[in-house]
Amino acid sequence: MTLEELILKCKKQDLKAQGELYKKFSGILFSVCLKYSPNYHEAEDSLQDAFITIFKRIEQFKGKGSFEGWMKRVTVNTVLQKYRKQKVFQLTNEEQLEEEVVVEVEVTTIPLDYLLKIVQELPDRYRLVFTMYVLDNYTHKEISELVGISVGTSKSNLARARGILKTKVEAFQREVDK
After folding, report:
1. Each residue of 53-77: pLDDT tens digit?
2. Is 21 buried (19+), middle (13-18) or exposed (0-12) by CB count in 10 A?
3. What's the CA gap between 164 and 134, in Å, rounded?
4. Considering the entire predicted model, what is its pTM?
5. pLDDT value at position 98?
6. Is the CATH number of domain 107-177 3.40.50.150?
7. Which of 54, 28, 32, 52 is nearest to 42 (CA)?
8. Rounded alpha-carbon distances, angstroms, from residue 93 to 38, 51, 128, 131, 153
9. Average pLDDT of the residues of the chain
10. CATH code for the structural domain at 3-85
């Protein structure tokens, strides 16, 4: 069955087609959820919420652009909505910008699993902005609109995230160099 046929059947709320769509895209969308979630369990919950939203709103997909891209956008918005409800950003309205933090990393010495771990350990507000800006190429303006914070707060949260990561990477490199 083609993707177009699968989408049409999902629009008709065909449960078998929904199951196939889930099997086909759950891995990709789970990785999106994992980038934005503090742990595996929350990523699983977010994936389920995202698919519920996808199936509810699949009529809105008109066949223009990438279906996978549309689902990723729905997934990111679903995860961000959860954080908006938790008011993760309400405590941080930081307009003061810090200097851009540059992290010099010798790529061969830092294991990918360690980098992912330290990104997931960031406080929620920093991790979300870092993930959106660095990993998913959102602009600060887009982040501010999606998350409901000012552009300045987005920039400040990114700077703080980079600072925390820089400290952890430097500590890791010192341990490796011993």
Report:
1. 999 999 999 888 899 999 999 999 8
2. buried
3. 15
4. 0.69
5. 45
6. no
7. 32
8. 21, 32, 15, 19, 6
9. 85
10. 1.10.1740.10
